[in-house]
Amino acid sequence: MTTDATLASHLQELRRGTVVVASLIALRTPGYGYSLLETLSEAGFDVEANTLYPLLRRLESQGLLVSEWNTDEARPRKFYRTTDQGNAVAETLSGEWSRIDRAINDLSFTHPGSDK
């Protein structure tokens, strides 16, 4: 029998990669960190700020995002957008996600009840 902690750990692993793809796709339209949190949440990706901001910095250091400061408002804010390289990575990861989804569905169809 699977414990709640084991399941939570596996769910976290599964979601970790999907947040990368979702962020790269969402930031094709430039956005601030907080607005990205809202966008992801509305789309069904529950991610916390203390997870998202380090992810944004990592994606930027990898050349997948660029950031700029908007100083037009009273409080300067940093906004991010996906680079051409980030778009290419998002396309590749999305395609792989679709392939994996089909493979899992094929397994589920050809091996019904095998999870028991």
From TrEMBL:
InterPro entries: Metal_resp_DNA-bind_regulator, Tscrpt_reg_PadR_N, WH-like_DNA-bd_sf, WH_DNA-bd_sf. This is Transcriptional regulator PadR-like family protein. Residues 28-90 form the Transcription regulator PadR N-terminal domain. It comes from the Bacteria. Gene3D superfamilies: Winged helix-like DNA-binding domain superfamily/Winged helix DNA-binding domain. It holds the Pfam family PadR.
